[in-house]
Amino acid sequence: MSAVLNDKALPRQTAAPARRVVTNSLEPRWVRYALITVALLFLALFLFVPLVAVFAEALKKGWEVYVEAIIDPDAISAIKLTLIAAAISVPLNLVFGVAAAWAIAKFEFKGKSILLTLIDLPFSVSPVIAGLMYVLLFGVEGWFGPWLAEHDIKILFAVPGIVLATVFITFPFVARELIPLMQQQGTEEEEAALVLGASGWSTFWRVTLPNIKWGLLYGVILCNARAMGEFGAVSVVSGHIRGETNTMPLQVEILYNEYNFTAAFAIASLLALLALVTLAIKSFIEWRLHAARKASTDTPTH
């Protein structure tokens, strides 16, 4: 019977590509060229031209002025603070994302929909509102403000507040990338490993993690890029203290408001380079993730 089923399935597998080819051939050539032209013009106008303008303005007065703007003590402080915020928030979001995705994709429990809603909360709340939430919690007149002042603990206008705001804004990225991937993979491999006597941790390290490694790396890259480029929430909780609580985006704003355009664009060019590197890595991971998903779907089941 399996041979009969396979013979019946073969015409359907070959018929679908044939229908796609016929459908594509019915589209007028000028429609395809027009759509491609519109897409290229849109990219050139809203992506490539601003990107070229950033580097052109940054290098307008030569390499020496550019390097001086980068090695300025305030700029170095902003770069360090940005790296510190990303170095703390990304690992925390990685752990949370894996745990949340594993719980949502592999188990059924009460409150699952609520957890999904909370994960999407930073996508629906303005970053400025998120910063104001921390002000209401940790400000002088906030819920915990008097207790923090009494114990000489600084959250707002200091590194902890910047890290907290960054963590809140970026925590959905890893989880939201892993949840559909782990749901698609199902639980069969983990169940087989447990039946064969593997422990929970061994199952995670040997079965789950290898299956999600490209999706996990993809989420981490997006999380890191957002952490370094976050402006709204960090702007509210930082206090804009030059050389202490300014991240790279805040330093760009201050320099631009002071009409120090070359220095502002120099710092902005570092963020632009980060975006380009992130885009390249993201494209590579997307390719590997697509290949991994295709291989998993093409694997015959017995």
| Mean pLDDT score | 82
Strand composition percent = under 5%
Give the beta-strand count: 0
Distance between the termini: 15 Å
Helicity range:
over 70%
Our Rg estimate from Cα atoms comes to 25 Å
Query: Topology as H/E string?
Result: HHHHHHHHHHHHHHH
How many helices? The count is 15
> Which overall shape is indicated by the principal axes computed on the Cα atoms?
globular
Protein described:
With 302 residues, the chain is an all-alpha fold. It has helices at 2-26, 29-58, 63-70, 73-106, 112-119, 121-124, 127-138, 145-150, 159-170, 172-185, 188-195, 200-229, 232-238, 248-257, 261-298. The longest helix has 38 residues, at 261-298. The protein starts with a helix and ends with a helix. Mean pLDDT is 82; it is low at 1-23.
The gist of it:
The protein has helices at 2-26, 29-58, 63-70, 73-106, 112-119, 121-124, 127-138, 145-150, 159-170, 172-185, 188-195, 200-229, 232-238, 248-257, 261-298. With 302 residues, it is mostly helical.
